[in-house]
Amino acid sequence: MTAEGQIIGLVCSGAASLAGGWWFIRRFAQARHLLDTPTSKIRSAAQGYAEFYGVLVASEQPALLGPLTQTSCLWWRYKIEEYKSNGKNRSWRVLESGSSDAWLQLQDSTGNCLIDPRGAEVRPATRQVWQGNQRHPLGSAKSAWAALFSAGKRYRYTEERLHVGQPLYAIGDFRSHGGGRQAFDLNAAKGEVIRQWKGDFAGLLQRFDHDGNGQLDEQEWQRVQVAAGLEAEQRRREQSLQPVQHRLGKPAERQPFILSCAGEDELVRRFYWQAAGGALLCMIGALAFAWLLGVERF
Predict the structure, then answer these.
(1) Where are the transmembrane segments (predicted)?
(2) What is the pLDDT along the chain (298 residues), one digit of tens a residue?
Protein backbone atom coordinates (compact mmCIF):
# COMPACT_ATOMS: atom_id res chain seq x y z
CA MET A 1 0.00 0.00 0.00
CA THR A 2 1.33 3.45 -0.90
CA ALA A 3 1.78 6.10 1.74
CA GLU A 4 -0.89 8.24 0.05
CA GLY A 5 -3.38 5.35 0.04
CA GLN A 6 -2.64 4.63 3.68
CA ILE A 7 -3.29 8.26 4.67
CA ILE A 8 -6.60 8.31 2.77
CA GLY A 9 -7.59 5.03 4.41
CA LEU A 10 -6.72 6.37 7.87
CA VAL A 11 -8.78 9.52 7.29
CA CYS A 12 -11.79 7.58 5.98
CA SER A 13 -11.70 4.93 8.72
CA GLY A 14 -11.21 7.55 11.42
CA ALA A 15 -14.13 9.60 10.10
CA ALA A 16 -16.33 6.49 9.94
CA SER A 17 -15.43 5.59 13.52
CA LEU A 18 -16.20 9.09 14.80
CA ALA A 19 -19.47 9.32 12.84
CA GLY A 20 -20.58 5.91 14.09
CA GLY A 21 -19.74 6.82 17.67
CA TRP A 22 -21.63 10.10 17.41
CA TRP A 23 -24.67 8.37 15.90
CA PHE A 24 -24.63 5.71 18.62
CA ILE A 25 -24.55 8.31 21.41
CA ARG A 26 -27.26 10.43 19.78
CA ARG A 27 -29.74 7.64 19.11
CA PHE A 28 -29.13 5.88 22.44
CA ALA A 29 -29.66 9.15 24.35
CA GLN A 30 -32.86 9.88 22.41
CA ALA A 31 -34.21 6.42 23.20
CA ARG A 32 -33.49 6.95 26.90
CA HIS A 33 -35.22 10.36 26.83
CA LEU A 34 -38.35 8.78 25.35
CA LEU A 35 -38.38 5.95 27.92
CA ASP A 36 -37.68 8.23 30.89
CA THR A 37 -40.42 10.76 30.04
CA PRO A 38 -43.88 9.60 31.19
CA THR A 39 -46.87 10.09 28.88
CA SER A 40 -49.04 12.96 30.14
CA LYS A 41 -52.56 14.20 29.58
CA ILE A 42 -52.76 17.66 28.02
CA ARG A 43 -54.96 19.24 30.70
CA SER A 44 -52.87 18.07 33.66
CA ALA A 45 -49.35 18.05 32.18
CA ALA A 46 -46.58 19.82 34.06
CA GLN A 47 -44.85 22.71 32.34
CA GLY A 48 -41.61 21.80 30.61
CA TYR A 49 -40.47 18.71 28.77
CA ALA A 50 -43.48 16.45 28.21
CA GLU A 51 -44.78 13.57 26.11
CA PHE A 52 -48.27 13.15 24.64
CA TYR A 53 -50.20 10.69 22.53
CA GLY A 54 -53.37 11.70 20.72
CA VAL A 55 -55.03 12.34 17.37
CA LEU A 56 -54.47 15.13 14.86
CA VAL A 57 -57.49 17.38 14.40
CA ALA A 58 -58.20 20.30 12.08
CA SER A 59 -57.21 23.73 13.37
CA GLU A 60 -58.62 27.15 12.57
CA GLN A 61 -56.01 27.61 9.86
CA PRO A 62 -56.98 26.70 6.28
CA ALA A 63 -55.97 23.23 5.15
CA LEU A 64 -52.67 22.88 3.29
CA LEU A 65 -52.07 21.28 -0.10
CA GLY A 66 -49.11 19.00 -0.74
CA PRO A 67 -46.81 20.83 -3.21
CA LEU A 68 -46.37 17.80 -5.50
CA THR A 69 -49.74 16.00 -5.30
CA GLN A 70 -52.05 18.90 -4.32
CA THR A 71 -53.53 16.63 -1.64
CA SER A 72 -55.23 18.32 1.31
CA CYS A 73 -53.29 17.80 4.54
CA LEU A 74 -52.16 19.36 7.83
CA TRP A 75 -48.41 19.17 7.20
CA TRP A 76 -46.15 18.27 4.27
CA ARG A 77 -42.53 17.66 3.36
CA TYR A 78 -41.27 17.14 -0.17
CA LYS A 79 -38.11 16.42 -2.15
CA ILE A 80 -37.32 16.47 -5.88
CA GLU A 81 -34.22 14.57 -7.06
CA GLU A 82 -32.54 14.22 -10.45
CA TYR A 83 -30.86 11.03 -11.60
CA LYS A 84 -27.22 11.51 -12.58
CA SER A 85 -25.15 8.91 -14.45
CA ASN A 86 -21.49 9.42 -15.32
CA GLY A 87 -19.87 6.15 -16.27
CA LYS A 88 -19.93 3.94 -13.19
CA ASN A 89 -21.06 6.80 -10.95
CA ARG A 90 -24.84 6.83 -10.61
CA SER A 91 -26.72 8.79 -7.99
CA TRP A 92 -29.77 10.91 -7.18
CA ARG A 93 -29.05 14.61 -6.64
CA VAL A 94 -31.49 16.70 -4.58
CA LEU A 95 -32.80 19.69 -6.56
CA GLU A 96 -35.52 20.96 -4.24
CA SER A 97 -36.80 20.18 -0.78
CA GLY A 98 -38.88 21.82 1.89
CA SER A 99 -41.51 21.39 4.58
CA SER A 100 -44.50 23.34 5.86
CA ASP A 101 -44.41 25.22 9.16
CA ALA A 102 -48.15 25.61 9.85
CA TRP A 103 -49.11 24.76 13.43
CA LEU A 104 -50.70 21.39 14.18
CA GLN A 105 -53.38 20.59 16.72
CA LEU A 106 -53.21 17.44 18.86
CA GLN A 107 -56.23 16.21 20.79
CA ASP A 108 -56.45 13.69 23.61
CA SER A 109 -59.25 12.80 26.00
CA THR A 110 -58.60 15.91 28.14
CA GLY A 111 -58.04 18.75 25.66
CA ASN A 112 -56.16 20.18 22.69
CA CYS A 113 -52.55 21.28 22.25
CA LEU A 114 -51.11 23.42 19.45
CA ILE A 115 -47.77 22.20 18.07
CA ASP A 116 -45.15 24.31 16.32
CA PRO A 117 -43.44 21.73 14.04
CA ARG A 118 -40.39 23.89 13.29
CA GLY A 119 -37.24 22.08 14.38
CA ALA A 120 -39.02 18.78 14.99
CA GLU A 121 -38.01 15.35 13.73
CA VAL A 122 -41.29 14.51 11.95
CA ARG A 123 -42.07 10.88 11.09
CA PRO A 124 -45.36 10.82 9.15
CA ALA A 125 -47.35 7.71 8.22
CA THR A 126 -48.14 8.91 4.68
CA ARG A 127 -45.23 8.84 2.23
CA GLN A 128 -45.40 8.76 -1.57
CA VAL A 129 -42.40 8.18 -3.87
CA TRP A 130 -42.62 8.10 -7.67
CA GLN A 131 -40.64 9.04 -10.76
CA GLY A 132 -41.14 11.12 -13.90
CA ASN A 133 -39.31 12.92 -16.69
CA GLN A 134 -40.22 16.52 -15.77
CA ARG A 135 -38.73 18.80 -13.13
CA HIS A 136 -42.13 19.16 -11.43
CA PRO A 137 -44.61 16.28 -11.57
CA LEU A 138 -47.76 16.69 -13.67
CA GLY A 139 -50.70 14.33 -13.97
CA SER A 140 -50.72 10.86 -12.48
CA ALA A 141 -47.65 9.36 -10.86
CA LYS A 142 -45.47 7.02 -12.91
CA SER A 143 -43.94 3.85 -11.63
CA ALA A 144 -40.15 3.56 -11.52
CA TRP A 145 -40.18 1.19 -14.55
CA ALA A 146 -42.38 3.51 -16.61
CA ALA A 147 -40.16 6.49 -15.80
CA LEU A 148 -37.05 4.47 -16.66
CA PHE A 149 -38.11 4.07 -20.30
CA SER A 150 -39.46 7.63 -20.67
CA ALA A 151 -37.53 10.06 -22.83
CA GLY A 152 -35.50 12.85 -21.27
CA LYS A 153 -34.18 13.24 -17.76
CA ARG A 154 -35.28 11.15 -14.79
CA TYR A 155 -36.64 12.73 -11.64
CA ARG A 156 -37.74 11.19 -8.36
CA TYR A 157 -40.42 12.84 -6.22
CA THR A 158 -41.06 12.25 -2.52
CA GLU A 159 -43.95 13.74 -0.58
CA GLU A 160 -44.78 13.03 3.07
CA ARG A 161 -47.92 14.27 4.81
CA LEU A 162 -49.84 14.38 8.08
CA HIS A 163 -53.65 14.16 7.87
CA VAL A 164 -56.66 14.75 10.10
CA GLY A 165 -57.48 11.70 12.22
CA GLN A 166 -53.99 10.20 12.22
CA PRO A 167 -52.50 9.20 15.60
CA LEU A 168 -49.55 11.27 16.74
CA TYR A 169 -46.88 10.75 19.36
CA ALA A 170 -45.36 14.09 20.40
CA ILE A 171 -42.53 14.93 22.79
CA GLY A 172 -41.12 18.43 23.31
CA ASP A 173 -41.32 21.60 25.39
CA PHE A 174 -44.85 22.11 26.77
CA ARG A 175 -46.20 25.51 27.84
CA SER A 176 -49.67 26.72 28.85
CA HIS A 177 -50.91 30.29 28.38
CA GLY A 178 -54.00 32.04 29.74
CA GLY A 179 -56.27 30.99 32.55
CA GLY A 180 -53.96 32.50 35.17
CA ARG A 181 -51.59 29.53 34.97
CA GLN A 182 -48.42 31.54 34.38
CA ALA A 183 -46.31 32.75 37.28
CA PHE A 184 -46.76 36.51 37.66
CA ASP A 185 -43.80 38.81 38.37
CA LEU A 186 -45.25 42.23 39.21
CA ASN A 187 -41.95 44.10 38.86
CA ALA A 188 -41.22 42.56 35.46
CA ALA A 189 -44.77 43.21 34.26
CA LYS A 190 -44.62 46.81 35.51
CA GLY A 191 -41.29 47.34 33.76
CA GLU A 192 -42.79 46.05 30.49
CA VAL A 193 -45.70 48.51 30.80
CA ILE A 194 -43.30 51.42 31.39
CA ARG A 195 -41.18 50.42 28.39
CA GLN A 196 -44.28 50.44 26.22
CA TRP A 197 -45.32 53.84 27.53
CA LYS A 198 -41.83 55.25 26.87
CA GLY A 199 -42.30 54.27 23.24
CA ASP A 200 -44.83 57.13 23.10
CA PHE A 201 -42.98 59.62 25.30
CA ALA A 202 -45.17 62.51 24.19
CA GLY A 203 -48.23 60.62 25.38
CA LEU A 204 -46.44 59.79 28.64
CA LEU A 205 -45.73 63.48 29.27
CA GLN A 206 -49.31 64.42 28.44
CA ARG A 207 -50.59 62.01 31.09
CA PHE A 208 -48.11 62.61 33.91
CA ASP A 209 -46.28 65.97 33.33
CA HIS A 210 -48.66 68.03 35.43
CA ASP A 211 -46.43 71.15 35.67
CA GLY A 212 -45.91 71.20 31.89
CA ASN A 213 -42.12 71.63 31.95
CA GLY A 214 -41.50 68.81 29.45
CA GLN A 215 -39.86 66.57 32.06
CA LEU A 216 -40.92 64.08 34.69
CA ASP A 217 -39.72 65.01 38.18
CA GLU A 218 -39.43 62.55 41.04
CA GLN A 219 -43.01 62.97 42.21
CA GLU A 220 -44.39 62.61 38.70
CA TRP A 221 -42.21 59.54 38.07
CA GLN A 222 -43.65 57.93 41.22
CA ARG A 223 -47.13 58.44 39.75
CA VAL A 224 -45.92 56.70 36.57
CA GLN A 225 -44.73 53.72 38.63
CA VAL A 226 -48.02 53.45 40.55
CA ALA A 227 -50.06 53.69 37.34
CA ALA A 228 -47.86 51.10 35.64
CA GLY A 229 -48.37 48.70 38.55
CA LEU A 230 -52.14 49.09 38.31
CA GLU A 231 -52.01 48.57 34.54
CA ALA A 232 -49.92 45.40 34.97
CA GLU A 233 -52.42 44.01 37.49
CA GLN A 234 -55.29 44.78 35.13
CA ARG A 235 -53.56 42.98 32.25
CA ARG A 236 -52.97 39.96 34.47
CA ARG A 237 -56.65 39.83 35.42
CA GLU A 238 -57.71 40.06 31.77
CA GLN A 239 -55.25 37.33 30.82
CA SER A 240 -56.51 35.05 33.59
CA LEU A 241 -60.03 35.26 32.10
CA GLN A 242 -58.83 33.99 28.73
CA PRO A 243 -59.17 30.26 28.03
CA VAL A 244 -56.08 28.15 28.61
CA GLN A 245 -54.06 27.46 25.45
CA HIS A 246 -51.48 24.67 25.46
CA ARG A 247 -48.49 24.70 23.13
CA LEU A 248 -45.69 22.29 22.29
CA GLY A 249 -42.46 23.36 20.62
CA LYS A 250 -38.74 22.78 20.31
CA PRO A 251 -36.94 22.47 23.67
CA ALA A 252 -34.24 25.01 24.45
CA GLU A 253 -31.89 22.21 25.55
CA ARG A 254 -30.66 19.33 23.38
CA GLN A 255 -33.65 17.15 24.11
CA PRO A 256 -35.51 15.26 21.38
CA PHE A 257 -38.39 17.07 19.69
CA ILE A 258 -40.25 14.34 17.83
CA LEU A 259 -43.63 14.17 16.09
CA SER A 260 -44.39 10.65 14.94
CA CYS A 261 -47.37 8.62 13.75
CA ALA A 262 -45.55 5.59 15.20
CA GLY A 263 -45.82 5.03 18.95
CA GLU A 264 -43.12 5.28 21.58
CA ASP A 265 -42.30 1.56 21.66
CA GLU A 266 -41.72 1.43 17.90
CA LEU A 267 -39.60 4.57 17.98
CA VAL A 268 -37.46 3.26 20.83
CA ARG A 269 -36.84 -0.02 18.96
CA ARG A 270 -35.80 1.90 15.84
CA PHE A 271 -33.48 4.16 17.82
CA TYR A 272 -31.84 1.19 19.55
CA TRP A 273 -31.28 -0.56 16.22
CA GLN A 274 -29.83 2.65 14.76
CA ALA A 275 -27.63 3.05 17.83
CA ALA A 276 -26.41 -0.52 17.34
CA GLY A 277 -25.62 0.28 13.70
CA GLY A 278 -23.65 3.32 14.81
CA ALA A 279 -21.72 1.26 17.35
CA LEU A 280 -20.92 -1.34 14.68
CA LEU A 281 -19.70 1.34 12.27
CA CYS A 282 -17.57 2.86 15.02
CA MET A 283 -16.02 -0.51 15.79
CA ILE A 284 -15.33 -1.35 12.13
CA GLY A 285 -13.79 2.09 11.57
CA ALA A 286 -11.61 1.73 14.66
CA LEU A 287 -10.41 -1.73 13.63
CA ALA A 288 -9.65 -0.53 10.10
CA PHE A 289 -7.77 2.47 11.52
CA ALA A 290 -5.71 0.21 13.80
CA TRP A 291 -4.98 -2.21 10.94
CA LEU A 292 -3.83 0.60 8.63
CA LEU A 293 -1.54 1.95 11.32
CA GLY A 294 0.13 -1.45 11.47
CA VAL A 295 0.61 -1.79 7.71
CA GLU A 296 4.30 -1.62 6.78
CA ARG A 297 5.28 1.04 4.37
CA PHE A 298 7.32 -0.04 1.38
Answers:
(1) 6-25, 271-293
(2) 677 777 787 788 888 889 888 888 888 888 888 888 888 999 888 889 999 999 999 988 888 999 999 999 999 999 999 998 887 788 899 999 999 999 999 999 999 999 999 999 999 999 999 999 898 886 445 555 555 555 568 999 999 999 999 999 999 999 988 655 555 667 887 888 888 888 888 887 788 878 777 777 788 888 888 888 888 888 777 766 667 789 999 998 888 999 999 888 888 888 889 899 989 988 988 888 888 777 644 4
Domain of 203?
A: 186-241
Concatenate the DSSP letters of all residues of the chain into one string: --HHHHHHHHHHHHHHHHHHHHHHHHHHHHHHHHHHS-B--TTTPPSEEEEEEEEEE--SSPPEE-TTT--EESEEEEEEEEEEEETTEEEEEEEEEEE----EEEEETTEEEEE--TT-EEE-SEEEEEEESSSS--SSPBPHHHHHTSSS--EEEEEEEE-TT-EEEEEEEEEEESTT-S---HHHHHHHHHHHHHTTHHHHHHHH-TT-SSS--HHHHHHHHHHHHHHHHHHHHHHHHSPPEEEEE--SSS---EEESS-HHHHHHHHHHHHHHHHHHHHHHHHHHHHHHHSPP-
Domains in the chain: how many in total?
2
Are 237 and 264 part of one and the same domain? no
